[in-house]
Structure formats: C-alpha cells, structure tokens
From TrEMBL:
Domain of life of the source: Eukaryota
A GO MF term: hydrolase activity, acting on glycosyl bonds
InterPro entries linked to this entry: Indigdn_synthA-like (IPR022830), PsuG (IPR007342)
Protein's organism: Dioscorea zingiberensis
Coiled-coil residues: none
Protein name in the entry: Pseudouridine-5'-phosphate glycosidase
Keyword Secreted: no
PANTHER family: CARBOHYDRATE KINASE PFKB DOMAIN-CONTAINING PROTEIN (PTHR42909:SF1), ZGC:136858 (PTHR42909)
Record keywords: Glycosidase, Hydrolase, Lyase, Manganese, Metal-binding
Pfam families: Indigoidine_A
This protein's GO CC annotations: cytoplasm
C-alpha cells in the first residue's frame, strides 16, 4: 500500500488517484454501527460493487490498529463488520486518540470527509448526515458533520438528514457555514426515509455532469467548504417512509422518557425504529445507501472526465 500524509492508501485507490480516475469515499460507521452482522458486511460489499460497476473505485475509510486506511480489502471489511460496536465511532475529534492508542475506529461523516480530503478524494457517499438535534438551541447538540462541511472541500452525496433531527435548523446552520446544498432532480430537501422534508433547496441538479461542474467550480474558486448533494429515497421505498416516520415519533418519546442523551440518542432511535417497523427501516436504509452509491459513482466518473477534458484543452 502507498502512504500519503500518514495515511495507508489501498493500491487500487492509489493508482486511481495517480491517474486522475474516479474514486468514491465511503464511511465505515454504517458498517460497524449502522446494522448488524452479517447484513453489514453484505451491504458493504454490495455498495462497493455498485461503485465499481459504475466506473469508479470505492475507498472505504476506517482506522485499523491506529492506522487511517483509505480503501479496505475484503478481509479488512469483514474484520470491521465483525468488530461491530467494538470499533469506536470516530468523528474528527476522536481521530488523534484512536491513532495514538492504536485503536480501531469506524469513521463518521466528519472523519471520513477529513481523510478523503487528505487523500485527494472529492466525492463521498453516505446514507445521511448528522445535524442539529431537536432542542439543539438549548442543548447545543450539533453534529460535527455540519462544521466539517463548512471547512472541508468534499462533496457529500446523501439522502439528507433523518427526521429525528431538526431539519430547518440544520439547513440554517449549513447556510451559516457557507455550505452549498443541492438536491438531485428536485427542489425538495429529502428527509432520509421520505422524499421531502417540506424544506426547499437553493440548488437543483439534474445530471451527474451538473454535479461534477458544481464540484469543480467549488474547488477552482478555493472556497474551502464542502457541499451537500442530496438524493431522495427510491420511490419503491418511499411509501414505507411514512410508517417509519410514525415509528420515529414513538421512539423519540421513549428516548425522552428514558433520558437517553448525547451520542446514545441516534443509535437508540435507529434500533427502536427498526424494531417498531419490523425491519422495514433497515431495508429502506440499505436501499437508499445503494441508490446514493450509484449516483456518487456516476458523479465521480463525470468529475474525472471533466478534469481530463480541462487538462487536454490546456495542452
């Protein structure tokens, strides 16, 4: 493997970056904390396959034995899947500790963005980003994903944010951070399990090429901030989204009654919602991640093609 700024870069990722080919970063928290084994391993393999089948190289990011890894082989994917919650959920703030103690870390959106940017990867696919939690104006419980988007020039392809969060305040916070927010083939900001949150976005994109041009403009201008490209959940799963929303409201009330707070809130809510929906939320989660990976790969390919075109025209 090749090293870059104290990172361990997988050979295929290194070659792709060296030649200006398409690369898509993938987080690892969804593997270790997002779903149980062996569904998590199967999903990770399938998501990587979707990226490859659509012309890009997947780079799943994690910290293993204290080493930040940009791209995992199948043995490493399986190890991470079996570790599950024994791998620490790793945001930006946790990176020095995990590295210093030679621990294992599953990267969240903020940590994955950080490492992707260090490696020179500009497109990152995830399920949904974190946001401002409900009553965040009092608790100050705001995901580091949002501040990372404000300072790291990576395009994040996601299904928006979960409705367990305060979506209007999340969008206001992103505006304050100077983050470009776009939606794919719609003007509606999606709410993860449902196609719309009732909030509008200022930027609509209708093709991977549109997305690539937006990313390129952001990089060329040196704005230093990331961008959020949101993709509605596939229509085949959106009907069940409203049932899931009802379960979310029940789970929120239960979390409040049990005084579940801080980092424990999201895992508690997702587990409870999956239980209440008898697995429907997990199936929808997997479907939207795969859908995001499909578009993310196409965006990465379009971006690589755009950059090669500019390079040829400069000769």
């Amino acid at each position: 493997m090749a090293g870059r700024n104290h990172l361990k870069v997988a050979p295929d990722v290194h070659r792709a970056l060296l030649h200006g080919d398409a690369v898509v970063a993938l987080e690892s928290t969804i593997i270790s904390h997002g779903m149980p084994y062996p569904e998590n391993l199967q999903t990770a393999r399938e998501v990587e396959a979707i990226v490859r089948d659509n012309g890009a190289i997947p780079a799943t990011i994690a910290i293993l034995d204290g080493v930040p890894c940009i791209g995992l082989d199948d043995e490493q994917l399986e190890r991470l899947a079996k570790l599950g919650k024994k791998a620490q959920k790793t945001a930006r703030r946790d990176i020095p500790h995990i590295v210093a103690t030679r621990g294992n870390g599953a990267t969240t959106v903020s940590a994955t963005m950080f490492f992707a940017s260090k490696a020179g990867i500009h497109v990152f696919v995830t399920g949904g980003i974190g946001g401002v939690h409900r009553h965040g104006e009092k608790t100050m419980d705001i995901s580091s994903d949002l501040t990372e988007l404000g300072r790291t020039p990576v395009a994040v392809v996601s299904a928006g944010v979960k409705s367990i969060l305060d979506i209007p305040r999340t969008l206001e916070f992103l505006e304050t951070q100077g983050v470009t927010i776009a939606a794919y083939k719609t003007h509606e900001f999606p709410a993860f399990f449902t196609e719309s949150s009732g909030c509008k976005v200022p930027c609509r994109l209708d093709s991977p090429e549109d997305c690539a041009r937006l990313i390129n403009a952001n990089l060329n201008l040196g704005l230093g901030s990331g961008m959020l490209i949101t993709v509605p959940i596939p229509k085949d799963y959106s009907a069940s989204g409203y049932m899931i929303e009802s379960a979310i409201q029940t789970a929120l009330e239960e979390a409040k009654n049990m005084n579940v707070i801080g980092n424990d809130v999201t895992p508690f809510l997702l587990a409870k919602v999956n239980e209440l929906t008898r697995g429907a939320s997990l199936a929808a989660n997997i479907a939207l991640v795969k859908n995001n990976a499909l578009l993310g790969a196409k965006i990465a390919v379009a971006f690589a093609s755009l950059k090669r075109g500019f390079a040829r025209s400069a000769l």
